[in-house]
């Protein structure tokens, strides 16, 4: 199983995804430049969508030193544990 990484498409950071105008799976796959030629099944099937989502998570996780740092960046603003926007970039 490949990592889905492409040299022309670096791992999307939290600010990249936040600024992206579309957030559905197809748009995120395109934005991240994932290679899904080895994915099981076809788009809109549970196995394919789960595989693509896992590759997106792995791609984003590569931008953080720890799982806790990624999880903290994923907390929406206003909820407990959300970082201050001026301190840390978030997924929101």
UniProtKB/TrEMBL annotation:
Chain spans, region Disordered: 1-21
Cited InterPro entries: RNaseH-like_sf, RNaseH_sf
Domain of life: Bacteria
SUPFAM superfamilies, A to Z: Ribonuclease H-like
The protein, known as: Uncharacterized protein
